[in-house]
Amino acid sequence: MVKQWISILMLLMMTGMAQAELVIEVTQGKQSAIPIAVVPFEWQGEGQLPEDISGIIANDLGSSGYFKILPVANMISQPTALEAVTYSDWRNLRQDFVVIGRISIDDSGYAMEFHVLDVHQKVELLRHRVKGKASQLRDIAHYISDYVFEKLTGIPGVFSTRLIYVTTNRERTRFNLNYADADGAREQLVFTSKDPIISPAWAPDGKKVAYVSFESGRSAIYFQELATGKRELVLQMEGSTSAPAFSPDGTRLAFVRSYLGNPDIYVMDLASRKTERLTNHYAIDTEPQWMMDNRHLVFTSSRAGGPQIYQLDVSSKAVKRITYEGSYNARARVTDDGRKLIYVHREGKNFHIASQDLHSGQVHILTTDTDLDESPSVAPNGSMVIYAASEADRSILAAVSVDGDVKFRLPSKYGDVREPAWSPIFKN
Amino acid sequence: MQINALYKALGLTLGALLVAACSSTGEINEGESETVTEVEEVVTEVEETVEDASTTAVDTSAVSGETLESRMTEAEAALLEQTVFYFDFDQSSIKSSSLAALKAHAAYLAANSSASVVLEGHADERGTVEYNLALGERRGMAVRRFLLANGASASQLEVVSFGEERPVAMGHSESSWSKNRRVEVKY
């Protein structure tokens, strides 16, 4: 009985949260986007399903920019089983792939079986079954999206990942650290304060986040476990302490400590909590971010005048400058494959997100239609960059693919949204 | 002449106090109460002396002394009223237009050792969050150094940066940005 109530309550919560604060709007897709039809799945249970599973899948695939979704209204037929598929219908609609499926329910929960069909070869390309509880319907949908995405593009999908970001009211008297699905749905509050919250960062296991809170009157670094909400003040040193970044192996935290106005890069061993100073320069050194080798950091330094990106060898403490184009390059992130550096680049009066090939050094400005871009964070599959931008007097989240082809926005209904951080891929 | 009278009065008072101090140290055992009385007497005498010159003269001299002081306070107060100091983009050097007011703050702090200030550094929204946090601190530190050099002591000065998190103007143009790149001196 109690269990039933809990599941009903969860269903209610889920439907309420479906009207998320952030809603994806694709503004630019790939020229080569693959035409795909996601046929509404057959619901074999009673009543109505609390989530539109095939709708979420279509939305996921469409928002990635890699796929061009056929609107349901344009479908000639809506098969839900393999036997009912007429390939010529889809060929006439110029579709490359069709996704069909069925959803059933039994005592153990929901089960979904789906097929991906190749219209040109007229064959079933893959078939898969996934199970979950009522509270996991969106997760199941994202799982299917990830599966289809990876099978058809060769790139791991990131639809099951999460975002953390900061929202503030216009007066800047309330700061919220939020947690939501990568599509902006199911937003939950992680931490709220009347004082600023900045620089949220994920631990590599996706279970914990670090962030900077000014609740004590000055910046300090906190850890918070997402499942339990347990918080810990980790670093508050004389001066200011900020910019936490977990090493990919999860053993160390890079951060910035500024004492007497001189910010430098430090590292803390998470087991012993011992800290070590890595840079010692009178200029501003900040925004450290690890490279996947756990040995190098990239960081922003004003040692050449304006901010530029440098690379630091954590062992030898050797520093090497990486960016040379333009007078303002800051807040770098490195793609997991170590090939690209993503950062904020000032061009004339505006600030845009740039991508730099770490081998050739070639710089590519990714964003042109948003203003005052900042806080880029790269998706764990290296395909997309989410960032904060200014639009019509507000701060919103927007995303761009690393190649610049795909763009989408996550406008919010109220307030400013800032400082997004894209989670790692969660491993079960 | 009026001032002379005042000086004379003060001189006498000081002299009497000195005498009293000497005598009090000399008469450890029994002189305490006597000494105090002596001082009081002398002071009364002094007051009488001043009063002897002219009632009006004493009043004006007192007023003129106060006026001199209050004029300085007014001038200082006017400067002390300026508590927000602005900076150029990506810069942390103090503008020359800020120097007079900052000197007044330094003088006030030097004269009032129990006073202390928080120097809140801020940046405009352009550029990155953490870099702006550092920039805000740099601005706060620039003001701190200036106040130190002009007489304030380190224990009176605390620097806190809020980066771009606490703008005073919410617009997205230079007119707002220039107001947000600032250090606020908060007593």
Descriptive account of the structure:
The complex is a heterodimer of chains A (428) and B (187). Chain A is mostly beta strands and 428 residues long. Chain A has four helices and 31 strands. Chain A folds into two domains: 2-153, Rossmann fold (3-Layer(aba) Sandwich), CATH 3.40.50.10070; 162-422, TolB, C-terminal domain (Neuraminidase), CATH 2.120.10.30. Helix content of chain A is 12%, strand content 46%. In chain A, the strands form seven sheets. In chain A, strands 2, 3, 4, 5, 6 and 7 form a six-stranded mixed β-sheet that branches. A five-stranded antiparallel β-sheet of chain A has the order 1-30-29-28-27, with no helix packed on it. In chain A, helix 2 (53-63) packs across helix 4. Chain A is globular and about 70 Å long. Chain B contains six helices and four strands. In chain B, strand 2, helix 5 (129-149) and strand 3 form a beta-alpha-beta unit. In chain B, helix 3 (55-80) crosses helix 4 (99-111). The longest helix of chain B is centred in the middle third of the chain and has 26 residues, at 55-80. Chain B is globular, with a radius of gyration of 26 Å. Classes of the chains: A mainly beta (428), B alpha+beta (187). The interface between A and B is medium-sized, with 39 and 28 residues.
Question: In angstroms, what is the radius of gyration of chain B?
Answer: 26 Å
CATH class membership of the largest domain in chain B? Alpha Beta
Question: What is the CATH topology of the largest domain in chain A?
Answer: Neuraminidase
Question: Can you summarize the main beta sheet of chain B?
Answer: 4 strands, mixed
Round the mean pLDDT of chain B to the nearest integer and report it.
74
Number of DSSP E strands of chain A:
31
Report the principal-axis shape of chain A.
Answer: globular
Structural class category of chain A: mainly beta
pLDDT < 50 runs, ≥5 residues of chain B: 1-62
Number of spatially distinct domains of chain A: 2
Counting H and I runs of at least 4 residues, what is the number of helices of chain A? 4
SS summary, helix count of chain B: 6
Low-confidence stretches of chain A: 8-20
Which architecture name of the largest domain in chain A does CATH use? 6 Propeller
